[in-house]
Design goal:
The complex is a heterodimer. Chain A is mostly helical. Chain A has one domain. Chain A has helices spanning 4-24, 27-56, 58-65, 71-101, 109-136, 140-168, 175-183, 186-197, 205-215, 218-245. The two termini of chain A are 22 Å apart. The mean pLDDT of chain A is 82. Chain B is α/β, with parallel strands linked by helices. Chain B has one domain (2-235): Rossmann fold (3-Layer(aba) Sandwich). In chain B, 36% of the residues lie in helices and 26% in strands. Chain B has helices at residues 40-48, 90-101, 107-113, 129-141, 159-174, 186-192, 210-217, 222-235; strands spanning 2-11, 14-24, 28-33, 55-60, 63-64, 75-78, 147-151, 178-182, 195-200, 203-208. In chain B, strands 6-7-8-3-9-10 form a six-stranded mixed beta sheet, sandwiched between helices. Chain B has a four-stranded antiparallel beta sheet with strand order 2-1-4-5, with helices on one face. In chain B, α5 links the parallel β7 (147-151) and β8 (178-182). The radius of gyration of chain B is 18 Å and the shape is globular. The chains are: A mainly alpha, B alpha/beta. Chain A binds chain B through residues 2, 56-60, 62-71, 245-248, and chain B through 11, 45, 48-52, 69-73, 75, 77, 79, 81, 83-85, 87-88, 97, 100-101.
């Protein structure tokens, strides 16, 4: 992708990393602040980038479709190009300041790598979702709208609904329900995963204890990573399924 | 060269191609004509595999095109609207397409023929419509393929370039290539086409040479003959 925006994105993270470290003067605190930024911002940027790139390169896609190429390789190639460069910007942009600050000599290294891994996953997931949306909508404005709505829903509205349902059904045992509900939203899942790794689950109260029991163990970690992988693979598969059947 | 059987294509509720059979043999220039929205571009895109038929069979050089992409190696396609990624340079675009095809190409000759040398280092976004179309033509003709598909090749070209394009098409024809052209410029068809395929409402209404069309419609002028064919249907 010959895009200025991925450099801007990279520089943004680079600046963010330095500023946070400068203000916090402490690695683990900076990691917590970063988490809040990553959880909300990464999906948003990936969604918007994905949609923008897809619509912008439409003509190019049509040019490629007439060439002796497999449809799958065209679309997956574009997808990996966008998601890959976004992930690179994220990892390098945040990695460089933290390494300069002495990440390797601190205990926060695992928390930090988990943060980057979930950030990477979120990029892959939301770029794939964005590609799916733009592939099914010829109309740019509509596609953009749906993509932003999707982000808004998963990042903000979902949490609200989740909380409301917890309050409404207070009297019932909700452990498995809230666990499942968390799994269904990649943003929530990533947030819970990082919070628990950072060992501040006390913030989450009663459910936090249940989560801790579940996510804190190795089994929980594996299950949640697997769910994230599933969240990545499913949209990519859907993308290639749709791409094979689409008319241009 | 191309065999099409029972081709149907629907876009939602809009039936574009209906039970279309077409047989195009090797060699010669075939003009695909028809009023706006008669399915010309859809037909071409079906052959290219860009549009997936609702039902029916298409074979190109005895290979079915379903779930196949290698057959496109032997097709050159000129799209109707020359839209290229604006941030690429002309040179880079040509190189990229060459990389994709891995075939011998003669782009230098064509670039010279259309006088595109000063534009090679310019970005595609800054080119005028006609120049873009010339780039489009270079990309289409630079490979040696046995089937060439041109969707409205004359749009935006100045008279001098049009003459060069005609020469280019005739050259390819003399090499024994099969050339499929859609256009609305009847003079161009009259001059160039060996055979006419007239599409109307998603089906083939007439297939034959220019002379056959004249005798059938009892017209002496080609443009009127084409107009007459449309009016005949309106009466029927």
């Amino acid at each position: 992708m010959r895009s200025r925006w991925s450099y801007v994105y990279f520089l943004f993270y680079l600046a963010l990393g330095f500023v946070l470290l400068f203000l916090n003067n402490d690695l683990s605190k900076a990691v917590i602040t970063l988490m809040n930024v990553i959880i909300v911002l990464v999906p948003l940027i990936s969604t918007i980038f994905g949609v923008m790139y897809f619509y912008n390169s439409k003509e190019f896609t049509e040019l490629l479709l007439a060439q002796p190429l497999k449809r799958n390789s065209i679309f997956l190639g574009q997808y990996l190009g966008v998601a890959g460069s976004l992930t690179m910007s994220l990892v390098l942009g945040l990695g460089i300041p933290f390494i300069l600050y002495g990440l390797f000599r601190s205990d926060a290294i695992w928390d930090f790598s988990l943060l980057l891994i979930t950030g990477g996953f979120l990029t892959l997931i939301f770029t794939a979702l964005a590609f799916n949306i733009s592939l099914s909508n010829e109309n740019k404005i509509k596609g953009f709208g749906y993509a932003v709505l999707l982000w808004l829903f998963l990042a903000v509205i979902y949490d609200g609904l989740f909380l409301m349902s917890l309050i409404l059904f207070e009297e019932y045992p909700l452990d498995s329900f809230s666990l499942a509900a968390t799994m269904f939203n990649p943003i929530d899942l990533s947030r819970t995963l990082i919070l628990l790794k950072l060992d501040i689950s006390a913030l989450l109260g009663y459910t936090g204890a249940v989560f801790k029991q579940f996510f804190g163990t190795d089994k929980g970690l594996i299950v949640s990573i697997l769910t994230l992988i599933l969240w990545t693979v499913l949209p990519i598969w859907l993308l290639s399924y749709k791409a094979k059947r689409k008319d241009f | 060269m191309i065999q099409i059987e029972n081709l149907h294509k629907k876009f939602g509720r809009n039936q574009v191609l209906f039970n279309l059979d077409l047989d195009i043999h090797s060699g010669g220039i075939f003009a695909v004509l028809g009023p706006n929205g008669s399915g010309k571009t859809t037909l071409i895109k079906c052959i290219l595999g860009m549009v997936i038929p609702s039902s029916g069979e298409i074979e190109v050089q005895d290979n079915t095109i379903k779930k196949n992409w290698k057959y496109r190696q032997d097709i050159n396609y000129l799209p109707q609207i020359a839209n290229f990624p604006g941030n690429l340079k002309v040179k880079e675009l040509i190189r990229m397409i060459k990389d994709l095809r891995q075939k011998e190409s003669k782009e230098e000759v064509l670039v010279k023929l259309f006088g595109l040398e000063p534009f090679l280092d310019k970005k595609l976004g800054t080119l005028s419509g006609g120049t873009k179309q010339k780039v489009n033509i270079v990309l289409t003709f630079m490979f040696d393929s046995s089937l060439i598909i041109l969707d409205e090749p004359t749009t935006g070209l100045d008279p001098a370039s049009l003459i060069k394009l005609k020469e280019l098409i005739l050259q390819e024809k003399n090499k024994g290539k099969t050339i499929l052209i859609t256009t609305h410029i009847m003079q161009f068809v009259e001059e160039m086409a060996d055979e006419i395929v007239y599409l109307l409402e998603g089906n083939i209404f007439f297939k034959g040479s220019v002379e056959q069309l004249m005798t059938r419609t009892k017209q002496t002028d080609f443009e009127h003959a084409i107009a007459a064919i449309t009016i005949q249907t309106a009466d029927a």
